UniProtKB/TrEMBL annotation:
Gene3D superfamilies: FAS1 domain (2.30.180.10). It comes from Kwoniella shivajii. This is FAS1 domain-containing protein. Residues 27-166, 195-330 form the FAS1 domain. Residues 1-18 form the signal peptide. Keywords: Signal. InterPro entries: Adhesion/Biosynth-related (IPR050904), FAS1_dom_sf (IPR036378), FAS1_domain (IPR000782).
């Protein structure tokens, strides 16, 4: 199992009947008041609009349950600035809302990884909007925000939601309503534009144009978009291609060799986020060669053959997997189709086996570089009390994975 999962039980307290929202109507009335009182009437409006779509009620009704959620809640100005003051009454809106809801509690002050690490949480966004293996949901990538004046990295409760070429930032304090942690943010994730795109389109946003043009010229467009279902893309930045051309005979290689070289940067059928990787982990690429992940002095590397690339930026979610940017083109034209096929089919069955444990969230608690922090039960007594709610006092089982990770030296 790749993902470091663990379970803990969150006690649902007694005294349940003392809570106001002991039925759905009361619960949603209370949510409405709570959102409006906290400057989030735009979000409430979006919920009401989504409630009239086909898929909306399924998402909205999920909130009234024994599960606990964190909602990244765009402020009113955020909806307006994004041209979404009249959100579309269709599945796009439901996808957008889904991407802002995480089925676990992430305390903005204590559970978010400091910059250069990530807290990765599974949102409620799933297929068909995303093509991830085993009906896995799309992740949200969070880190603490740095004070832009002082450069201070202390976690003062400010959170950054990282996208490919966008960030959303928390604005104001997180508050609790019943089973919900609600964190106001300054913009909705521009999900409709970006998360619906494949790794290829995201690579364009990231300026990895050399990789894109090589993918196109070697005829790999479709293979890496439609035929890559939940893939991990190690995308070399432009300078990597320039360096490879200068130092090897890369650019004069046959197209088949160039294609294999690119496929040696892709894992087919496994979406491997940085926290899934431990030093020494070995994978089989789409070309069938071994790819090894290593850490050294806080930096992260991958190697294929005699080439080694440093990971510059990790965990950029794309509709069909995840992108990690690397600094070196690993010029390995060798391939082994049999191994590639075997790896793809075992990745696929592993991913399906994983569906039962993917209601999972990463929670901060970061220590040294390159360590995966073990999953602490971050549910403090205070939190448990604020979450004591509704129904019958059973124990809710929470599944969690720890997900922190160190980036390489550079940021892009
Ligand atoms: C729901 O809860 C509210 C507030 O406690 C109460 O006034 C109302 O009668 C309840 N409705 C139903 C259908 O139980
Ligand atoms: C969603 O719509 C249903 C049916 O019209 C209604 O009963 C429910 O109160 C609505 N929920 C919200 C949160 O608007
Ligand atoms: C988050 O943790 C901080 C520090 O422990 C605590 O003061 C705060 O109340 C917590 N927030 C929520 C919403 O529980
Ligand atoms: C950044 O730090 C300055 C100086 O300590 C402080 O006044 C300011 O409130 C901080 N900004 C944020 C967004 O925390
Ligand atoms: C997003 O935040 C990171 C800091 O974590 C920063 O390096 C990057 O430039 C930001 N991106 C945008 C588009 O603002
Ligand atoms: C591949 O995709 C790129 C970018 O979307 C496009 O410009 C190019 O024409 C495509 N190439 C082929 C062969 O389809
Ligand atoms: C040039 O390409 C050939 C064929 O792939 C390879 O055997 C040779 O080692 C390469 N030379 C250099 C300098 O990389
Ligand atoms: C991934 O594996 C599937 C099934 O074996 C195959 O159809 C597809 O072409 C592969 N994609 C890549 C990028 O290797």
């Amino acid at each position: 199992m790749l993902r470091n999962t663990s379970l803990f039980a969150a006690l649902i307290g007694i005294g349940v009947s003392a809570l106001p929202a002991d039925n759905a109507t009361a619960y949603f009335n209370g949510l409405q008041s709570s959102l409006i009182n906290n400057g989030l009437s735009g979000l409430w409006n979006a919920i009401v609009v989504a409630n009239h779509t086909d898929s909306g009620p399924g998402l909205i009704n999920k909130l009234y349950s024994d599960d606990r959620f964190t909602i990244y809640a765009p402020l009113n100005s955020a909806w307006d600035n994004s041209g979404l003051s009249q959100p579309p009454a269709n599945g796009d809106l439901v996808s957008l809302l889904s991407y802002h809801i995480v089925k676990a509690t992430l305390n903005s002050s204590t559970d978010i990884a400091p910059i250069r690490h990530h807290t990765i949480a599974f949102t409620e966004l799933r297929s068909p909007t995303v093509d991830l293996p085993g009906d896995q949901t799309q992740v949200i990538v969070l880190e603490t925000a740095v004070n832009s004046t002082t450069g201070d990295n202390a976690n003062n409760g400010d959170v950054l939601v990282r996208g490919d070429s966008w960030n959303a930032t928390s604005l104001g304090d997180q508050f609790v309503y019943e089973n919900l942690f609600i964190q106001p943010i300054d913009k909705p994730s521009p999900l409709l534009k970006t998360l619906a795109q494949s790794g290829l389109a995201i690579s364009a946003n990231l300026g990895a144009t050399s990789a894109l043009s090589t993918i196109s010229s070697t005829g790999l467009n479709e293979t890496l978009s439609q035929d890559c279902y939940g893939c991990t893309f190690f995308i070399p930045v432009n300078s990597a291609f320039a360096a490879a051309s200068a130092s090897t005979n890369y650019s004069s290689l046959l197209q088949d060799d160039q294609r294999n070289i690119l496929l040696n940067h892709v894992l087919n059928g496994s979406t491997v986020y940085s926290p899934d990787m431990s030093s020494g982990n070995a994978y089989i690429t789409s070309a069938g060669m071994p790819l090894v992940y290593l850490t050294n002095e806080g930096k992260s590397f991958i190697s294929v053959g005699k080439f080694r690339a440093s990971i510059l930026r990790s965990d950029i979610p794309v509709s069909n997997g995840v992108v990690h940017l690397i600094d070196t083109l690993m010029v390995v034209p060798q391939n082994n189709h049999q191994k590639a096929d075997d790896a793809a089919s075992s990745a696929s069955s592993e991913a399906h086996a994983r569906t039962t444990t993917t209601n999972v969230v990463g929670i901060g608690g970061i220590t040294a570089p390159a360590t995966r922090t073990s999953s602490a039960a971050t549910s403090t007594p205070t939190q448990s009390q604020s979450f004591a709610k509704k129904s019958n006092g059973i124990n809710a089982i929470w599944k969690m994975a720890m997900v922190t990770f160190v980036l390489g030296e550079l940021w892009i």
